[in-house]
Amino acid sequence: MNQEDKFKNVISHAKEYGFVFQSSEIYDGLSAVYDYGQLGSELKNNIKQYWWKSMVQMHENIVGIDAAIFMHPTTWKASGHVDAFSDPLIDNKDSKKRYRADVLIEDHIAKIEAKVAKEVNKAAGRFGESFDEAMFKQTNPRVSAYIEKIQGIEARMKSCLEADDLVGIKQLIEDEEIVDPVGGSRNWTDVRQFNLMFSTEMGSVAEGANKVYLRPETAQGIFVNYLSVQKSGRMKIPFGIAQIGKAFRNEIVARQFIFRMREFEQMEMQFFVKPGTEMEWYESWKKERMAWHLSLGIPASEYRFHDHIKLAHYANAAADIEFNFPFGFKELEGIHSRTDFDLKQHEAHSGKKLQYFDPESNESYVPYVVETSIGLDRMFLATICHALQEEKLEDGSERTVLKLPAILAPYKIAVLPLLKRDGLPEKAREILGDLMQDFMCQYDEKDAIGRRYRRQDAIGTPYAITVDHQTLEDNTVTIRDRDDLKQERISIDEIRRIVQSRLKVNQ
Ligand code: GAP
Fold this sequence. Notes:
By secondary structure, the chain is an alpha+beta fold. The protein has three domains: 1-71 and 196-395, BirA Bifunctional Protein, domain 2; 86-194, Herpes Virus-1, CATH 3.30.40; 411-502, Anticodon-binding domain (Rossmann fold, 3-Layer(aba) Sandwich), CATH 3.40.50.800. The chain is built from 16 helices and 23 strands. The chain has helices at 3-16, 38-57, 74-78, 81-84, 101-127, 133-139, 141-162, 166-175, 219-232, 278-294, 341-350, 376-387, 424-435, 449-459, 469-474, 495-506; strands spanning 20-22, 34-36, 62-65, 86-91, 98-100, 192-195, 199-202, 210-213, 239-248, 263-273, 303-307, 317-325, 328-339, 356-358, 363-365, 368-375, 388-392, 398-402, 413-417, 441-443, 463-467, 476-481, 487-491. The protein has a seven-stranded mixed beta sheet with strand order 3-9-10-16-13-12-11, with helices on both faces. A five-stranded mixed beta sheet has the order 20-19-21-22-23, sandwiched between helices. Helix 2 packs across helix 12 (376-387) and helix 5 (101-127) runs antiparallel to helix 7. The model has no long low-confidence stretch (mean pLDDT 94). It binds glycyl-adenosine-5'-phosphate. Glycyl-adenosine-5'-phosphate (GAP) binds at residues 217, 219, 249, 251, 260-261, 264, 266, 268, 331-334, 371, 373-375, 377-378.
């Protein structure tokens, strides 16, 4: 199956089994807005808990908050979002499609990178074990020309974006003969900036309407509360504040399902450090966040770091953790060294001191900040894209299985009476009543047992407990593992301990 079909499968599977629905679908939907269904909200909650546990519970010096979505409008002036939170947009005059100009260029670079990868793969096959990739890239004329071209385009894009040179960006698109991915035309408008913040009005008109914004990142709620948290929690630098919450962006190009949405959720952590130590912390958080992703069992080859070509207005270093989505490697999480930009700006705009008194060095300073910021919806998408598999079994049959990390699966256990009679449903419900106090469980007695196993495979339930006639005699059940399909006979008293220990191993 090609990657495009695989992605279509993910979207239809997510809908069919109640993970993700188009928002307001009965009215033909609202562009780039989605609702999470009964299984999707469980998966999403489990991702949140897994992140919160590793960031807040497992770190003595990180605490969590829950700030409001609406903030004083000056917040966004101070943070630079009113003036600078915009994307360069370009329209194609023939197809009438709208694009982010920088994304068009990045996609063009990705195509050249794919050509490099193809040549490298071919050569690796030819030369076998003795293949030296770095040497090949340097010496093969075609490949080195591709690499030089990529570097040239990246350098031009960086300097144009940094200088806000929109004419230069259009020129780059024209020079590279980049065509509209939909219509194939090169009939482009000029490039212009488009602010991504949504705004609304607070207060009645009589009182004087006041423009407020829907926050485009959760981070500012942390910055404006940092001193209150530090003082009330007696936090000592270095320390972190974490938050999970909604963010809103009026994205120009909102395609690819829940990858780029207009309403989404972020899991962010701001780590406050002594000025001058931020680069050490930046490197340390890059490592720690990558380790978090790998702890979920997805192979390292599916992730990579990507240093930002253009740094955001607040950063002195920034990298993305990219995931290999069916549409290519794309940003999943950002790690940013944000300097003291935000806190200094809030000091200037509020007139309040936001300095930290360091009892160790006896000095006051505005801390520097290293941020980790992951999109919850993107993490959901990465997880489900990797998990959804079509498998051929030993007996020749096929199954659709969602191999979610067990700790994230919506239901942990399915309780299934083998037959709908002979007292088996009653016994199964007794077991269910006990297990559901500790685990999300599902009971199913409809259809043949094989079909019920397939239904649980499709929603990613890692363990199925089957109650049969032997259960009534000796209080044992079978436990079936979703991934290796092995079935073991165990005592009912042991179910809880066994499932708990397997969930830990998978963590
Ligand atoms: N506070 C820093 C910040 O917001 P960002 O790189 O703009 O940085 C962080 O966003 C993460 O939020 C991204 O890595 C991505 O996972 C997620 N994200 C950003 N825009 C998104 C969108 N429109 N839809 C879904 N997720 C998004």
